[in-house]
Design goal:
With 382 residues, the protein is α+β, with helices and mostly antiparallel strands. It has helices at residues 2-6, 25-37, 93-101, 147-162, 247-251, 264-269, 276-279, 285-289, 293-304, 308-322, 327-338, 347-363; strands at residues 52-58, 64-71, 74-79, 110-112, 130-132, 182-188, 192-198, 208-214, 222-228, 234-241.
């Protein structure tokens, strides 16, 4: 729709049927308002008012003349000269015929094994058009995964087959776990840039939504929603605004504990966050956005397994779970025991975390040069 408006098509000549879902009601309202201001006539956008497209109508020369749809029990025809379908990802007839003709199994998606292999030993596949076999339960469709992560895993599987130095191809015993966040972005009517990054797993109820800004008159022109699950993990980031943002950077904050993000929840509740975009562009965030931060994350988790202070926190949470406490209570307990920025942790635990963080900054000071590091004891400094 935004592209049609940019090409000079009048808004009054564009009709949107069945609308969209941006993940936030405030964002939906802002975009619908921009569409109506441009002269568009949306059909079926309200709750329970979705229409069902029945048929594309054409004339004797097979040219499009309209769309027949059901609005409740009433049949209507919308006259038009062009129809653009923009529904969910699906397989077009050419791909289906090619897949079916080669004997590959297609069950709504191209079926692959745990090692991303089709029924043909020489054909591997991965991405939005694949799925695991029905024998694997509780799976998420591959279109919900990050394509970069599934592609990297498939490349590893192919490498085991073609690399002469490989010990040989072995079918994985466990279903691969894809956890990288998936992001989508694009321009919408009204000059709005939209971005949404979320985890592939469906989050349970109880997520806390922290909103900053707005897109109406008298606002900063940036509307952000950051969602945090009951375990304190950032599970979704949504943005709508006039300014284009660096979506790749915000993909790196989803899936992290909010404590890694400069105690984001505590800062928000304390009134210190006016705009999430500005917050995540502060100097401290450069370390989190670094491509090796995940190594620091993994290293800290490994070291804290045997740390006394971390054990006390884990023990308290485990006892809470055994006593049947809900997620909100457990999250409050965790936050009270850890404190903002780790202020309530044991001195030895804080020292361990600080030492690991400083060592990470030293090793990457060529890129992370905005941090003032303490001098090394017993010798020269940096």
């Amino acid at each position: 729709m935004s592209a049609l408006l940019e090409k000079g098509v009048n808004g009054s000549d564009i009709v949107l049927m069945n609308g969209f879902g941006l993940g936030d009601a405030g964002m939906d309202d802002a975009v619908v308002g921009a569409m109506e201001a441009a002269g568009m006539a949306p059909i079926g956008l309200g709750n329970g008012s979705a229409v069902n497209v029945v048929e594309v109508v054409g004339d004797n020369d097979q040219c499009v003349t309209g769309v027949k749809y059901l609005d409740g029990d009433k049949e209507e025809v919308l006259e038009c000269r062009m129809v653009v379908f923009a529904g969910s990802h699906d397989c077009n007839p050419e791909v289906f015929n090619a897949t079916n003709g080669t004997g590959l199994v297609y069950d709504g998606r191209l079926v692959v094994s745990k090692g991303m292999k089709t029924v043909d030993d020489n054909i591997y596949a991965g991405g939005t058009m694949t799925k695991f076999s029905r024998t694997i339960r509780r799976q998420v469709k591959h279109e919900r995964y990050c394509s970069r992560e599934t592609g990297a895993y498939m490349a590893e599987c192919v490498l085991m087959k073609v690399d002469p130095l490989s010990p040989g191809e072995v079918e994985p015993e466990e279903v691969p776990k894809f956890t990288a966040p998936r992001g989508v972005s694009g321009w919408l009517p009204g000059g709005f840039f939209y971005a949404r990054v979320n985890q592939p797993a469906i989050e349970p109820d109880g997520c806390t939504t922290m909103i900053t800004g707005g897109v109406g008159e008298g606002t900063v022109g940036k509307y952000c929603a950051l969602k945090c699950n009951p375990r304190g993990v950032i599970c979704e980031f949504i943005y709508l605004g006039k300014e284009e943002i660096e979506v790749g950077n915000y993909s790196k904050i989803v899936g992290l504990q909010e404590a890694y993000l400069n105690s984001a929840v505590a800062n928000y509740e304390g009134g210190n966050v006016e705009d999430w975009i500005d917050f995540f562009r502060e100097d401290w965030s450069t370390a989190v956005m670094h491509d090796r931060f995940n190594l620091l994350h993994a290293s800290l988790r490994q070291m804290l397994i045997t740390d006394e202070g971390a054990f006390d926190v884990s023990d308290m949470l485990v006892r809470g779970m055994e006593e049947g406490k809900d997620d909100e209570t457990l999250n409050t307990t965790r936050r009270n025991m850890v404190g903002a920025g780790g202020s309530m942790l044991m001195p030895s635990t804080k020292k361990l975390i600080e030492a690991s963080g400083i060592e990470f900054l030293r090793k990457n000071k060529g890129v992370l040069n905005r941090f003032l590091l303490p001098e090394r004891t017993g010798g020269g400094g940096d």
